[in-house]
Amino acid sequence: MSIGYLGVLQRLKEERILHGMTQQDLGSRIGISQGHCRKVEQADKRLTYPELVRLAETEVDLYYVFTNRRVRQVHKDLFHNCSFKELLCYLSMTASLAMCMYDERQIHLEDDLYRQLCCIQYIVGTGNRHEETIFTLLKQRENETQQGMAEQLGVNVKTYRALEQGTRLPDSELVWKLYDVCKVPPALIIKDTKGIVCEIEYLMERLGKRPNGAIYKYFCLLHKYYLSKR
C-alpha cells in the first residue's frame, strides 16, 4: 500500500472528526458498521464504489480527501443548480482555457496538473460521445494493452478486463491509484457533483480569475440557455 493512499485515509479521518462524526455516525451514513469504518481508516479494508458514492453525499469533502486540495467554493449559487452533465461541460471548457493560457505562457501549470487537464479533455469529450468506461478510454489514451494498464495500476489483467467491461467497479484504493498514476479526477470516477464543482473552482483560481468575473458570467449565461432548452 502506498504512502499516498495512507494520506487519503488520514484526511478521511480528519474530515470525519471535523464534521463531528464518530466512526459509528459515518458508518451508518454510508451503510457500514463502526468496526468496518475503523478498519477502513486503519487501511485494513477498502471502501467499495457504492460506499464512495454515498460518502460523496455526506458533509465529507471527498475532493480534499483524494486530492489534498482545499478549495473555496465561491460560485455555489450557480453550480448548486447544475446537473452533473452540465458541470462536465463547464469543467471541460475551463480545462481548455487553462491549457490554452499555458500554451500561450500566460500561466504556469505543474506537469501533473497539465496531465490532469489533458485527461479531463480526453475522458469528458470522448466518453460523452461513445459512452465507454474510463478504463477503456485510459487504455486508448495511453495506447496500452490491458496487461500494460493492469501493471500500471497494480491489478491483475482479469481485474482490469472486468473494470473495462463495467462488470467490476473500483474501490477506494483503486480510485486513488487512478488519480495518482493516470491523473483521473476522482470526481469523474465517482460521478461526484460536489467534486466536479471543486475541480472547476480550483481551475478558476489557477487561472487567476476573480470571483464573479467574466468566466462566471459566461457560465451564468450558458446555464440560463441550458434551462431554456429543457
SSE layout:
Layout: H1 3-18, H2 23-30, H3 34-41, H4 49-56, H5 62-67, H6 76-79, H7 84-103, H8 111-130, H9 134-142, H10 146-153, H11 157-165, H12 172-182, H13 186-190, H14 193-206, H15 214-228
Task: Report on the architecture of this protein.
70% of the residues lie in helices and 0% in strands. The protein contains 15 helices and no strands.
In short:
By secondary structure, the protein is mostly helical.
Mean pLDDT: 91
Calculate the terminal CA-CA distance, rounded to whole Å.
46 Å
Biggest β-sheet strands, sense, barrel: none
The backbone outline, from C-alpha atoms, is: globular
Query: Strand pairing plus helix content: what structural class?
Result: mainly alpha
Outline the low-pLDDT stretches: none
Kindly state the percentage of residues in helix.
Answer: over 70%
Helices, by number, come to 15
Number of strands: 0
- Rg of Cα set: 18 Å
Order of helices and strands: HHHHHHHHHHHHHHH
Question: Which characteristics define this entry?
Answer:
230 residues; mainly alpha; 15 helices; 70% helix; 0% strand; globular
